[in-house]
Structure formats: structure tokens, C-alpha cells
Amino acid sequence: MALAALIFPLSYWESVRTIGQTYHFVDLDRGQRRNGKLIARDLQAQIDTIRTIAQQEKLRETCMAWIEKAERIGPPMPETIDFVSSYVRQRVSQLGLTQAASYTMHAHLIPSY
Fold it and tell me: Which residues contact 8 (CB under 8 A, 6 or more apart)?
């Protein structure tokens, strides 16, 4: 990591961390559920930022290929996220939990939280 920190600027690492936060089904700041289209849009924005930084830093083609590979998951992602989320929501709703407990259960069942 120390060597990588010297190679990539701080804004790159901030964007990578933001991808992890963006992938959540619940907005961590507001506590509201997010749908697949919103998640995919936000992920694409972070990928665009990372690509711009990689181009500015003139990173190797292998780095650009990794970015392109990450970007290919974008188009089918909203449907997959919505399917998984609705399936889990349906199962959790059968338990009759409060909204807070429901979100906690959702987070437990979907490891991307």
C-alpha cells in the first residue's frame, strides 16, 4: 500500500473509497434505501473520476483495462441490485420488524453493506 500511495494521488484513493460507500443499498448519511439505477449512476460517476485521474497520471494500459473491466458491470447492475434488494425486502417484511430492525436485517443479509 505504501508504494501504491506514492503512485496514485489522494483523489484516486478517495474515489476508490467512495465506490465502497456508493455500493450500499442504504444511503449511510440519510438512512434511506437506494435503488439500483441510483447506485449504478453514482458508481459510474466514481469510475469516470478514477479514469480521469488515471489518464492525467498517464498510468499503464493494464490500469486502464482494470477500469474498463469495472465499468462493464454497470449496465446489468441496476436490475441485479433491484432484484436482490426486493427479494431480501420481501423476506424481511414477512418478519414484521420495525423499519430500523428491517434495515439492520437487510444489511446483515446483503454483505455489501
Answer: 53, 57
Cell 467512495 -> residue: 18
Q: Residue 93 belongs to what domain range?
A: 2-109
For 26, the 3-state DSSP assignment is: strand
Where b means 16+ CB within 10 Å and e means fewer, 78-100 reads beebbeebeebbeebeeeeeeee
What's the predicted TM-score (pTM) here?
Answer: 0.64
CA proximity to 110, closest of 86, 76, 78: 86
- DSSP helix/strand/coil, 59: coil
- Overall domain count for the chain: 1
Query: Residues 37-75: pLDDT tens digits?
Result: 888 888 888 888 888 988 888 888 888 888 888 888 766
Residue keyed to cell 458508481: 43
